[in-house]
Structure formats: C-alpha cells, structure tokens
What does this fold into?
Amino acid sequence: MRLPRKNLLPLEGRPLMAYTIEAARKAGIFARIVVSSDDEEILELAAREGVETDRRPAALGGDRVRFVEVLEEFLARAGDAMDYVAVLLPTCPFRTEQDILAAYGMLLAASAPSFVVSVREYEFPPEFALAMDGTRARVLRPEIYAASTQSQSVGKSYHPNGAIYFAPVRLFLEERSFFREPLLGYLMPPERSLDIDNLYQFEIAGAIIRARK
It folds into this structure.
C-alpha cells in the first residue's frame, strides 16, 4: 500500500524527510539546500528544519510529476549561479553524509562533465523476471530458463536506489535527465539503499532504526 504524504510521517519520532535534510546539512558541500513542494505542511516543516523552501507552480503539483521536471523548472529560475546540482529524495532515510560526499567526489574527479547516480545491486537477477497478466505469467527471457541457468551464474546488475543524483547544471539542462552518458554509478549497500514507498518499507525502516539503537 502506497503511503500518502509519506515525507511527513514520523519515523521513530522524526518526519521522514528530516533524515535527508540532516544528511545534506552534515555533508557541508551545498551552498543551498532547498525543499520543493506544493504541500504547505511540507514547506513549513522544511522552514523549521532551517532550509530554503520553493513552492512549486500549480502545473507541477501532485505525486505523478517527475522530479526532473521540478528540477528543470527550478533551475530555469535559479540555476545561473550554480555549477552543480544534486537531488536527494526524502524517501531514502539511510543515505549518509559520507555517501553524499563520496558521490560528489566522483563528480569532481570525472575526466569530463558527468552524471553520478547512486545504485544498489539487484537482490535477484532481473534476467529471471516474469511478466504477469492477472494470474497468467510469461517468461521474458526464455533462453535463461531453457539453459537451466543458475541465478548465481548470471552477472551482477544494478539499479538506481533513489538516494543521490548529481550533475553539472549545464549538462542536466542540456540532457533534461540524469541518465545520459557519461554516467557514473555510486554503489551503496542494501542497508543504506532502502527507498520508502509502501507501508512495509516504512515498518522495515523503523525496525532498522530501533535495532541500531
């Protein structure tokens, strides 16, 4: 079950988005930390946390708007004075300031202007994926099953974990995406890669924090 307005939900006594704001602040590399939203309560919370707020235009309101659209509109208004931009989704509470600094270091060390995206390894190879139409299943890669391939023999694959996106501002505005060449992946472990979208993930996050205490 998707969680409505999950960024405000209390995760072990703190609003979910506060974890991301804290990590961004502790990283110490950002000239501006800005929370963008069309939700008045989110903007008020961000202000209490001591960061800038930016009210989105009505056309970019709602949950179905892609964050790259929001970022593009914001940079069109405010990006001339910026060299680099980062997106830190508030649904990733376990990304640390060290992760942010390491990804930023990759950005600065790149031989050419590049995108940096945080990734994690797939828990199970996507080559074994099935498509479902109701209860009817269809094998997407028949050759994998025909060869009786073992999952551990398939090469590793990775996917974005939603925690960190970095880019030079000019490159982002040219490509209007973070997924263009040259693209660098900053690998994060699964225990810091949890991206909360559903109730069970929120409950897992709470259990992790309690266990760490």
